Structures are given as structure tokens and as C-alpha cells.
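[Primary structure, fold]
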Amino acid sequence: DPQMLAQAFLCAGFALYVRGAPGPARLAMVAALFAVGLLIKHNVLALPLVVSVHVLWRLPNRERLTYAGIGLGLAGLASLVIHLMFGPEFFRQLLASRVYDVTRGFLLVMEILSRLQAPLAVVGLYLIMAGRGRTEGLVAAYLVVGLLIGIGFSGGAGIDINVFFDVMIALAMGTGLAAAWISRQAGMPASAAAVVALVANVGIILFSPQALGRFAVDALGEMEERQRLFREDVAYLRSIPGPAICESHLLCLRAGKPMLMDPFGVLQATLTGRLPSDRFTGMLKRREIAVLQIS
């Protein structure tokens, strides 16, 4: 999933926006960075939405026209190129509905919020008590919009913790601002801000050993073993003539098999009634598929 790469471009655009006076040249660069980020991952909307509302609400007409003109122009150009390359079906698939499970969404929201209690409290109190600047206001709006989007999308099929990445990034920004403010108010050395930030995020940091343990296992040889097994699967799949359907698209790609369908997309289309229930099973019954790979 390219989301972290997209977030990097969006955060760069946000940093450029808050760093100095938002003149036309700076806003053109911000719009371009946002456009690139949204082309990489189309649904990371929180930062572009917050900045766009701020630009249209607070800045003079010249800056508004520059930002909107560059942003809409790049969006239109990208849409035209995509349409010419892939046709209208791309946009139909992009906007296709998914199954929504309220219970699953509630459980995911509770899990994430339980991990983020401390930074939410620290950042929330700081923004209420001392967050009076332009940057603080934008970070607060980013946090709120990120929470609303994360909660709203949390019940969708295929959704995971990444739907709250914007919340985590906003909290990282807010924790840094809060830690620096606390350090200044208390007359502590600059290094104390890092300690405050670590304490505020201790709930998330406690999950680090699990992730680091996974990296250690990979480094000790499991990654090489998985790569060897993957190469064997590619060779086996390539040796069988005929079409294949792979849950792992990379496996079919490396084996030289054309992509006939996306299993996840077909499942969602079937469950939501956009495809007949026997579209996929009918292909199997008629033996139109030589190989079916399930992870």
C-alpha cells in the first residue's frame, strides 16, 4: 500500500504551507505536492481538505485563485490521462461501494483510541489552553478531520489501522508543539521536550517491541525463507498453462499471468449486488481458470 509515500508528500506540502507567508509561488508548490500525494493514494484527504478550507477562507483572492487553479488543473490533467489510458471503468471501480460493518468499525475505533489516549489528552489540552497560533489551529483542524474520517471509514471492508494514520501524524505534530511549549513555560532545556514527547506517546511505544521483534525474525533468516518460497510459487505458477487468479497480484505478475480480476473487488461487487453471485464460481465450474491462488 503506497499510503506512507502519499503521506510524505502531503506532510511536505503542509510544512511548506505553515513555514512562511503563503504567497502565490509557495501555494503553487503546496498544491502540486498535494496533487502528487493524492495521485499516489486517493483517499488521504484530511490534510488537503484542511489546508484548502483555510486557503479559501482566510487568504486573499490572488492566493485563492493560484492554489485552486494549480490544484484543479493538475487534478483535471491527471483525470484526463487516466481516462485515456484506462477508460471510464477506472473511475467506476475507484468509486465502487464496499460492505460496511458497524460493529467491526466500532471495535477498530475503540482499539485505536485506547492506544492514543495519552497523546490525545496532551495534545487536546495544549490546543485548548495555549494553541492560539495559525499552525496550532491547522494542526487542531487536521486532528479533528482525521478523527472524523477515520471513524467514518472504520467499518468499511478492507479497512485497517492505516485509516487512522492521519490522526497519528496530527498527534505527532501536536505533541511536538505541546512539548516545546511545556519546555519553554517551565524553563527546561530544549532536550526536555523530547522527554515530554516520549512520555506522551508511551502507549504507542509499548507496541514497538512487537514490531521490532518482527524485524529481528526477518533479519535472522525468515525473510530469506519467504523469498525462496515465493520464487518457488512463481516458478510453479509459470509452469501451468492457462489463466490464473491470484489473491497476491505480485505473484501473478511475476509469473507472467495477466490480471483477470481482483478477488477482493469481485467479492465486494458480489456482496453489494453489482455482480451476479455466480460470476466467479461459474468460471470455476466451467474450468475457465487453470490456477487459483489463495494466500
In short: The two ends are 17 Å apart (CA to CA). The mean pLDDT is 89.
